[in-house]
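ugh ok so i messed up the first submission bc i forgot one of the chains. this is the corrected input, ALL of the components this time, i swear. 555 residues overall. if the numbers dont match what u have on ur side tell me asap before i send this to the collaborators (the ones from the other lab, u know who)
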Amino acid sequence: MSILVVVESSEGKLKKASREAVCYAAQVGGDVIALSLGDTPEAELATLGANGASKVLNVAGSFSSSEEAAVAVSEAMNSIDANLLVMAQSAKADMIGGRVAVKQDAALVSNVVGLPDTTNGFSVKVSIFSSKAFAHVALKKDKKILIVSKNTVDVKEEGGSANVEAFSVSLPDSKVKVTGEEKASGDILLTDAEIVVSGGRGLKGPENWGMVEDLAKTLGAATGCSKPVSDMDWRPHSEHVGQTGIKVAPTLYIAIGISGAIQHLAGVNSSKYIVVINKDEEAPFFKAADYGIVGDAFEVVPKLTEAIKALK
Amino acid sequence: MKILVCITHVPDTTSRIAFTDGNTKFDSSGVQYIIGPYDDYAIARAVELKESNGASVTVLNVGGAETEPTIRKALAIGADDAVRVNAAPTDALFVAKQIANVAKNGGYDMILMGRESIDYNGGQVHAMVGELLGIPSLSPVMKLEVDGNAAKMSREVEGGKEFVEVAMPFVAGCQEPIAEWRIPNMRGIMTARTKPLNVVEPVATDEAVAYVKYEQPAPKAGVKMAHSVEELVDLLKNDAKVL
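and heres the new structure output, hopefully the right one now
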């Protein structure tokens, strides 16, 4: 069985989630072939061999629409006779997956959090209700597409490099014209970060974000915020973590001065460890946390930053 | 301009999530249903465009008769008429095929919906509808302005946002801050009662996926409280081993 895995990169480096997707496919078992769309360096793509890819198909060029990308993915599936497509969850994967499912008449599930169970058909565990519950979903078509959540499997590196082959495909004219872009502030992608430090209304104003940024910098973390904070324009919308904002799944999530409304929890409850810093010991966030400290953020956060600096 | 807005009928964000029948069915007892929060942005933007540019707004839901109060709320916010496809929304491809079937002869200039539903969170329907109709699909769209026969949008991409131009027709999955949520006023609620709500039967499709069984997450072990910053650092270093 051939499995196609679409991989993504950022600034020339493959995303960790894409490596996880390759490892996921390798654990499903079969000939794992990766597909890269865009301009990732060949040497970087070759390293996917260590994660379990036997070959990498490389489609050069820019993709301004999901229509073009879906054509490339679907043709790659045909060319290697893949009956399973695996992608790491991302805005892009969500845009491509649905189109490929229609082209291939495939069964598609997203938010996958476990390896397939093939004892009786083919089913996977997925998170639903913003990670407040799980479902076991049976895929009932010959062709299947799995969009896998972050941290579902560990990244394995077992040496070996994969052959990178150019894959050419004739693309439809794009009806979507990209006219510009705006990079979010901060060096670390919120959706890709291992550690996220978020601030809420308890910080009293945008002028107090320096200490959040200091802590984040010390930890190598991305910064986030609660919905009220982005609604009041203290921080950009791109930092809003929660139900209607960005959903994160870091190893460590530190919430400062955030009470823990259910809408915020919906964006963070896939985190491995949650630390809550709040002066109100009744804050509901403590119930969802792994570690907590009751205290004034203005005292706790700078002390915490210093203590972590001292460790390093 | 004709706008189709697809809405979901989902449990309120604060609902208790539980299952019945040996964990094979969602327990809807005592659950308050709402328009999906992302879909609320889609309706609000459609109504804003109706006010600023002139448009007719049709709202569409795939669901049983129990979803009609939710559809009426969308009419009260300012949609002109509604279509209910009379079927349980079993999976994304099924729902997409129902929407595409309604849309294919409707002459809609844009099809708006939320970026994802907040129950199954699949986030796939907009792309499937776009593919079924052979038109562009974009998501998550944070800004949408009409300019002649095209739309200018900003969409979220990893690490920032991208500005794009797309000719109509297209499908867009919406998210904040595309519009301000609207609360129906009394006049809206009164007029919604008499606005047309057409019920159509679904087109048949084969089953792609089946939700076999549900489960609750394992309960958290309980929070470990630190009484000093030193103790917190110690917990993170030696208990969680994340530092």
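quick check: Chain A touches chain B through 85 residues (CB under 8 Å). that seems consistent at least. The mean pLDDT of chain A is 92.
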